[in-house]
Design brief:
Blueprint: E1 7-9, H1 19-35, E2 40-42, H2 60-76, E3 83-92, E4 95-104, E5 107-113, E6 140-143, E7 146-149, E8 155-157, E9 165-170, H3 180-186, E10 191-195, H4 204-219, E11 222-226, E12 243-247, E13 250-251
Parallel strand pairs: 1-2, 2-3, 9-10, 10-11
Antiparallel strand pairs: 3-4, 4-5, 6-7, 8-9, 11-12, 12-13
Length: 253
Amino acid sequence: MRGFVRVTAAVPRVRVAGWEHNLEAALRLFRRADAAKSQVVVFPELSLTSYTARDLFLDRVLLDGALAALEVLVGESHALSPMFLVGLPLHTERGVFNVAAVLQRGQLLGLVPKCYLPNYREFEEKRFFRSGLDLPEGETLTLFGRDVPFGKDLLFVADGNTQLRVGVEICEDLWVQNPPHVSLVSAGATLICNLSASNYLVGKADLRKLLACAASDRGKCGSIYVAAGSAESSTGMSFDGHAFVCENGHVIA
């Protein structure tokens, strides 16, 4: 890609299962990114509900609240410039998926599901979510009165910059043997965004940087990684809000 783009990694201070509070926190940072003339702003995984809501991901009150929050964000984005990526649990007829919603200028551009669900050590995501690998190609969902693309193989072109083509993956998708970004970069992605939760462990920050930098170097692209913040630390896990931007194998911010 020629030229430069300004991007934002945004880590809100969430409340566990507090979708109304989390919506307001997201809007504040969305507006700050717009004021800073950012073209892309990326939030952590499940940031509209919190990552540590656990069994509440099976509660329709929380799921409906997250969807209502997303609808508000879509409406508010009419007056804001950046492409906005935010995480939420999404109830469908196929089950509940951990998704990244991508929106810009009043349009919900698409929904990208998490493919690889960690189910080892402190993680039990298969208890709550379906894998995006279960979805057929070309899947759509009807949301807010229109059909929305729903799948792991989507690319998004930023408003006003056709060279900025955004691919999306969620947390564990970066850590596996065949991460989605490989196919996304091969299809033309120039920026990979990873919405993550990723709890804190000694040495884990270095490993995150190693993985994201390697991906950006192999793909000759940019990479944004955004992990959940300390307000998620309501269980036995701690979260450090680790966020950074890579380009061609180097952390630049």
